[in-house]
Amino acid sequence: MLKTFSVKNIDISDSLRFEPRYYYYSKVLKKKSLQKGIKFTELAKISDFISDGEHSHIKREKERGVRYLYGRNIKEGLINYDPISDSPFISEDDYGKFKRTHINQDDILLTIVGTVGKSALYKEEYVGKAGIPRHIAKIRLNRDANITPEFITAFFRSKIGKWQLSSIITGNIQPLLSIKNIKTLDIPIANNSLITRVTNLEKKAVSNEIKALLLLQKAQKLFYEKLDIDFSKIKKKNSYSVNLKDFKDYDIWTPKFSYPYFSRIITAFRKRWKVVQLGKVADFKKGNEVGSINYNEYIDKKEGDVPFIRTSDIVNFDTDSYPDFYIPKEIFEEIKQDVRENDILFTKDGKIGVTSIVTKADIIIISSGLLRIRLNNIAKSYGLTPEYLFMVLSTKETGLFPALRRTVIASTIPHLREDRIKDIEIPILSDKAVKEITNLVKKSFILKSEKKLLFENVREEIDNYFKV
Question: Exposed (0-12), middle (13-18) or buried (19+): which is 241, by Cβ within 10 Å?
Fold first, then answer.
């Protein structure tokens, strides 16, 4: 539906802004809220500290140190660690030198460069010790503020919060939220009962996520223990040769496919365990490209629009509760993807090898960069479960490395063909081990499903309060 409103010439002269979104918040949404008796205060008045992170370049480390977040790690309501494409650490020495990187428990983190306006609370319980660069702002409330950081992050995710953030974005090529403009953000002086309800829902949702990730860590640790292979003893070589005659048996002529380290890992599996090719025990279906003309952002989405999950929308082994885009319900019904609870999603384009499980709370459309994997009837004879297969595919030696081995570069983008994914070999552990791993993973995704429902309740609470 087309939205129309008018702006006085003097307002344009004062602001020198010609974008409708700049005025829609202040001239329409805020005005309606004020008429309903909702009052606002500036964010700076309730904050002790608002700043961006470190501006200097700090060398990143791949393996160990202090977690150094990218802007893309901040998702709506949660912080996501990307094990595929991140070099996520800086040294303890650099962390100590660059004080601007430091963040405290429950600081509000807000993305301010590039992909802007996403916010989450810093929780050391699942992020660990961490720092931030200039692409992320940190907001620390003062103790006298009659509001909670949980409520503010929830408000930033609401429609009116998104409209307001959108209205202060500047930058011609790269979107930017300046610290100066962030300090002037309107924060609603809501009634205590709403703040309490939203805060409790947010705390419960984040608590579920923390518990879920700990369960997945426990499941992966158990998987390594039961696999009983010492990967540190498998030799790595930076240089190697391949006999020309061996290429006759291959359909991939890439260095990674012949990398001896990858081959030795597979040999170790075969010696220790029975293996089965993924294509024998699972069925596959890739997602759809629905056309960017059909993309709706959250602030523009209509009732019934369905989350569109791209490779960037896999968050902590789960589909994002707040993806970048939504698709009209009629397209969802037309393409009939048949994505069900307990299906495994596997990224095959661009960022290869990220996995998730579809939860009970998910009604989604997946893009063509994702592959839906579903166990078939043959899998039962091997004692396989979706949860166990997820753990195999989300562990680097058994999932990521075999995927990278079969990946080719199509023009400039990494691509993994479906028929090559089918060749990935799945180690079959004992029935007891599979059952133990399955139970841990299942409990984790039950918590994740509940988290999504809690986030949805938060969304409804705030959007209904403002009636946007």
Answer: exposed
